[in-house]
Amino acid sequence: MKNIKFLFIAFSIFFLSCNNDNDSSQETENQNLTKMYSEIISASMVNTTPCTNPAEWSFTAIGSKSCGGPTGFIAYSLKINVQEFLKKVENYTKAEDAYNKKWGIISTCDMILPPTRVDCVNGRPTLMYSNLEN
Q1: What is the 3 state secondary structure string of 44-74?
Q2: What is the residue range of 119's domain?
Q3: Other Cβ atoms closer than 10 A to 115
Q4: Is residue 134, in this structure, part of any structural domain at all?
Q5: Superkingdom, according to UniProt (predicted)?
Q6: Tell me, what's the pLDDT at 21?
Q7: Distances in Å between the alpha carbon of 24 and those of 18, 27, 95, 99, 101?
Q8: Are 118 and 57 in contact (CB under 8 A)?
Q9: CB within 8 Å of 105: residues ≥ 6 apart
Q10: 83 vs 80: CA distance, rounded Å
Q11: Fewest CB atoms within 10 A around its CB: which of 34, 46, 58, 63?
Q12: How do residues 38-48 score in pLDDT, each as one tens digit?
């Protein structure tokens, strides 16, 4: 009987330690995604460059919903290394997709319509959406 209790306690400790490792891994991966996103925001120059000419800005899809499709769109300055920036966005989107699949993340399955253009509003790039009624 003592052996069974010992095995049960040993198994419980092993299971709990494995479970904590998974939680820690998920948290670490989530922190890595947050860091990647912050780097993308910085690289886009959206917060550091005044928007005075909408022709100097563009946008791209970013992120991955668990049901498919992007989590949103991000404006970026055309004065940056666009190819490098879009590669960062692609890497982030792939990493978020892998994270969602690995950890069984659930999100809404609504489809996010892309913006039609970027305008400068009060010196900031702003994603604009067409009026569907026109």
Answers
A1: HCCCCCCCCCHHHEEEEEECCCCCCCCCEEE
A2: 2-128
A3: 16
A4: no
A5: Bacteria
A6: 53
A7: 10, 5, 17, 14, 17
A8: yes
A9: 66, 99
A10: 9
A11: 34
A12: 999 999 999 89
